Amino acid sequence: MLDALLPFAHNWLIAMQADVTRYVLFSVGVWLILWVVLARTLAGRKIRDTRPPARQLVLEFLISIRSIMIFSTMGLLTFGLFRAGLMQGPFIARELGPIWFWASLVLMIIGHDAWFYWTHRLIHDRRLFRVFHRRHHRSNNPSPFTAYSFDLGEAVIAALFVPLWMLIVPTQWPVIGLFVLHQIARNTIGHSGYELFPARKDGRPLLPWLTSVTHHDLHHAQAGYNYGLYFTWWDRWMGTEHPDYLTRFAAVTAKQRRVTSSPSPA
User: Fold this and answer.
1) 11: pLDDT confidence band, cut at 50, 70 and 90?
2) How far apart (Å, rounded) are the C-alpha atoms in residues 256 and 47?
3) Phi and psi of 149, rounded to 5°?
4) Do 135 and 63 form a contact (C-beta atoms < 8 A)?
5) pLDDT at 162 over 60
6) Which domain holds residue 55?
7) How far apart are CA 244 and CA 249, in angstroms?
8) Does pLDDT of 266 surpass 50?
């Protein structure tokens, strides 16, 4: 029994190391660039006037590591299905060529946005919220470390998407790697507290179909709105976009324009 578990434990540690390294690079990287190096330059893009306390950042980081342990376990089990011959999708996808490679990545991102929207709305039900989603919303004022600060149940729901997708849609393993990089980049930036998305001259988002940082920040401030992760489509279709979203976005981006256009002191 022990001999059978040792290879699994070894592979789990390797997967865990890779997942933690990726998380640290993105979360600490976004925090360091936006909150330290460019803090003065981006002062006009800060969505809220206050920053969360250091204790919150440390706790979010530690809980995120716990979530990554669940992600690594699910990832290793998924690879186990593949090695056992129970998941033929990667072989099929490879035969479909480079066009399908990139098409499957786009479809996976769109599919994940739908998965996130509907599971996110589900765990906001008051009967499920305390068990599945309360931990994440304790970060009322989010930070890049909030990205994976999940209750155990929410971490499992998040981790289930990849194996379910791969069982249904032929997808190569490198596509999964690119998807994960996109997911964590959008997640850490979306919780960064700085509005980085461009605006038109009238203050509306230049790319209105993408969720901006303000879009998700409003969800943390007022949880009954803005459930989407990457795109604004589902919130608009289902009437769950915050009524003040465009006004808030315009106010933040206008503040940046005022800061950059102010004359320098003599």
Assistant:
1) confident
2) 10
3) -80, 85
4) yes
5) yes
6) 2-259
7) 9
8) no
Residue 3 CA to residue 243 CA, distance in Å, equals: 58
Q: Is residue 236 part of a domain?
A: yes
- Whether the per-residue pLDDT at 245 is higher than 80: the answer is yes
155 vs 157: CA distance, rounded Å? 5
CB within 8 Å of 109: residues ≥ 6 apart: 179, 182, 230
Encode pLDDT of 52-93 as tens digits: 999 999 999 999 999 999 999 998 899 888 888 999 999 999
Our count of domains for the chain comes to 1
The DSSP output letter for 34 is I
Residue 95 inside a domain? The answer is yes
Query: Which residue in the block uniquely carries the two structure tokens 């289930």?
Result: 160
Type of residue at 29: G
Task: Give a yes or no: residue 265 inside a domain.
Answer: no
Amino acid at 75: G
d(CA 258, CA 84): 60
Q: Global pTM? A: 0.91
Rounded CA separation 228/237 (Å): 11
Q: Whole-angstrom Cα distance, residue 216 to residue 220?
A: 7
